[in-house]
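Support case: flavin-adenine dinucleotide complex. Customer-provided input:
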Amino acid sequence: MKQNCDVLIVGAGPAGLCAASVFVNTNVQVVVIERDPFLGGQLLKQTHMFFGSKEQYAGTRGFAISDILKESVLQAKNIHIFTETVAAGYYPEDGFMLAIEQDQTLHRIGFKKVIVATGASEKALIFENNDLPGIFGAGAVQTLMNMYGVAPGKEVIMVGSGNIGLIVSYQLLQAGISVKCIIEAAPVIGGYFVHAAKIRRLQIPIYTQTTIRKAIGTDSLEGVEIVSLDEKWQSIPGTERIESCDTLCLAVGLCPMSELLSQMQCETKYVPELGGSVAIRNHRMQCTNKDVYIAGDVAGIEEASSAMLEGYIAGVSIAEDLQIATPKHLVLRENSVEFLKAMRSGPIGEKICSGLKKVEESHV
Ligand SMILES: Cc1cc2nc3c(=O)[nH]c(=O)nc-3n(C[C@H](O)[C@H](O)[C@H](O)COP(=O)(O)OP(=O)(O)OC[C@H]3O[C@@H](n4cnc5c(N)ncnc54)[C@H](O)[C@@H]3O)c2cc1C
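Agent response - structure generated as follows:
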C-alpha cells in the first residue's frame, strides 16, 4: 500500500508522542509508526515515580505519564497511528519509508518531514556461556515483570549499578524476587544516591570493581563466576568466586538506535558520552539531511524528561518549516529549550553537555 503524509514519526515513546502532540488541532497529516502493540515506549514498563520537574510529570509513575501523553494524540483526526508496525527501511530513490505490519502488510509511506524517535537498544556483555537461558537484559526483565506479571526467576544477580540496575533491582525485590547482589565494574556506584540508598537499606550488597567471568549451567543458568578488578580494570587473580543464581540481569547501558538515520544519509558520529553513534544535528533537532529530525534516546541516551522536551522542539521546528507554527508553538519550543538547559546544568548533565558539543559544533 502506498500513502503520503506531511510528517512521519517513527517511534511512539515519550519523544515521538510529544512530537506528535504538536500537530494536534492542525491540518498537518501525520503518520506515527510504532513496532509495539502499545504507545508509550519505555514508560510503559516504569512503575516507579519519576524524578525531575513538575512540568515533566515528576512524582507520576511512568505508565501513567504515557496515558497523559497519548490522550490528545489518539483523539486527533489528522494523526494516523500504526502499532505493531516496524519502520524497516528508507528507500532514497523513491523517497519512502517501508513499514511492515505484524500481519506482513507492507506500507510505502512518503513524507515531507520525518522525526526519528526510535529510542535505544540494550548493550550486552561478552563472557563465557552468555547465551544460557536465565540471562536477560534489564529491559526484558522489566517487560516480563511490569507489563506481563511474569517473574523472570527466583534468585537474581544484577550486573550494573546505574539507575536502571538499581531501579530494576528494587522492582524485583518489590515483586518478591530475591536479589543476591549487584556487581559493578567501576569503582563507584553509577546511579543516583536515592536509588542506591533504597537497595542498601534492604541490605543487598553492591560490589564495586567486580565483574562477571562466566555463567555456569548446562540447560539453564545455575550460577556465575565473578572476580574483583584492579584500578586498571584487570581481574585480580585469586579473587574469583562462585555465586549461585537462576537469573542474571544485565543493566550495562543503552545504545541509540540510529540505523534509519544512516540510511537517510544523515551524518552520524560516535560519541561515548551520548551512548554510541548519534546524528549530527542543530539546536532545532534537525539532522544534516534537512528533512530529518531526531528526538529522545536516539539523539543521545538521557531521560524521558529530555526525550519529551526534544520531541516538542523537533515537532515545533517542523511546524515552522511547514509554515503552520503559531505563537503558542513557539512558546512551547522556547520553554522546552529552557527546561532542557536547566536539566543539563547540574553535575549529572555535564557528561551530556560535553557529548552534545561534539555533535552540535560539527554541524554543517
Ligand atoms: C529502568 C528505567 C528507569 C527509568 N527511569 C526514568 C526516570 O525516572 N525518569 C526519566 O526521565 N527517565 C527514566 N528512564 C529513561 C527513559 O525511559 C528513556 O530515556 C525514554 O523512554 C526515552 O524516550 P524515547 O521516546 O526516546 O524512546 P523509547 O521510550 O525507547 O521509545 C522508542 C519507541 O520507538 C519504537 N521503535 C523503535 N524502532 C522502531 C522502528 N524501526 N519502527 C517502529 N517503532 C520503533 C519502540 O518500540 C519504542 O516504543 C528510565 C529508563 C529505564 C530503562
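The chain has a mean pLDDT of 95.

Case will auto-close in a few days if no follow-up is received.
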